[in-house]
Amino acid sequence: MGGVVKSIAERGVLRCGITLCDNQIAVEDTQGDRVGLGIELCRALSASLLKGKTDTIFFVKIPETSDYANISLALKNGDIDVYAGREVHMNGDVQRPGSSFSKPYLYEAPHGNSTAVQAFSLATKEVMLNGPI
User: Fold this and answer.
1) What whole-number distance in Å separates Cα of residue 3 and Cα of residue 5?
2) Per-residue pLDDT tens for 101-128?
3) DSSP 8-state code for residue 64
4) Helix (H) or strand (E) holding 100
5) What is the C-alpha to C-alpha distance for residues 30 and 106, in angstroms, rounded to an integer?
C-alpha cells in the first residue's frame, strides 16, 4: 500500500472534495446534513480504506464556480484525497495530466441548451502505473 491510499490510512481521515449544488450528487438538506450520491461514495470509500469507519471523512467544499484546474490543484497539493460531486468533461478534464478518474458512476441526460451527456466520476491524484497506489 502506498501513495494516496497510504496517506489516508496513516492520517485516519479521508479528505473528500465535494461541490454542493442542486443535482442530488451532493446537497445539504434542511437540517444541514450533507446527502447525495457523491457523499455516499465518499462514505463507502472511507469504510473501505479505514476499516469500516464512515465517520472519518472531512468534507472540503469546492465552489460550484471552480473549474477543474482548481480541483486538480487541490488534489495535487493534497488538500483533498478524492473529488466527488460534479460532472467530469470527458474530452477535457480526463486528458489533463496529474489526475486519475474512476469509470463514470452516473450519466445525466442533456438539459437546457446543451446536447452533451454529463458523466460523473471520482477523481484523485494520478499515480505512476508501475508504482504503489
Assistant:
1) 6
2) 777 777 777 767 777 777 777 777 765 4
3) T
4) strand 99-101
5) 25
Task: Spell out the residues 6+ positions from residue 123 whose beta carbon is closer than 8 angstroms to its own.
Answer: 71, 72, 75, 82, 83, 84, 88, 93, 99, 100, 101, 102
Rounded to the nearest angstrom, the gap between the alpha carbon of residue 121 and the centroid of all alpha carbons in its chain is: 7
- Alpha-carbon distance 79 to 71, whole Å? 9
- Better pLDDT: 57 or 25: 57
Give the span between the Cα atoms of 96 and 6, in whole angstroms. 24
DSSP state of 104: P
Q: Which of 108, 60, 55 is nearest to 82 (CA)?
A: 60
Nearest to 17 by CA among 54, 55, 53, 70: 70
Q: What is the pLDDT of residues 66-95, one digit of tens each?
A: 777 788 888 888 899 988 866 666 656 555
C-alpha triplet 72, 73, 79: angle, nearest 5°: 105
Cβ neighbours, 10 Å, residue 1 = 12
Cβ atoms 49, 5 nearer than 8 A: yes
CA 120 to the chain's CA centroid: 9
Residue 132 pLDDT exceeds 50: no
